[in-house]
Amino acid sequence: MDIKDCRQLTFVLDGGNYGFPIHTVNEVIGLIGITQVPGTPKFIKGIINLRGKIMPVMDLRLKFEMPEIEYNERTCIIVISVNIKGEKKTIGVVVDGISEVLDIKPEDIEPAPEYGSGEEVGFIKGIGKFRDKIIMMLGIDEVVCCEDVAAFFRQEAKKSLAQV
Asked: How far, in Å, CA of 58 to CA of 66, rounded?
């Protein structure tokens, strides 16, 4: 794991502690109106208009096949930058709540777990230990970059070209 990935914005999902590398986070916002987009997977909640910029929003609980819950006052959107097919894109990720920014020492990071087949869970880049917490350190590009999100950006690019 790269040393710059040791500083994590930590958040909660279904009672577990997770983190994104802080350098991938643009901002954290409260819930705002999400417009559903027909024909998208359940974990793509829709799109938002954030200060004039339209971006897709993904519910991380649903992406990880956790039970869906009703959003509450702690639910928020982490606005992150990702690389999708070589291009920097912005996307919102819904989480149960934000915890804190942690500096996890490299010696307190274990490798991602392997399961029966010997394959790693690709989006878990490491397991951080901080005091009494275990933090699943996520690789943002691996979590967010899926064909469904890439298709959204391709569709938006075609719309932009059609308007020119």
From this structure: 13
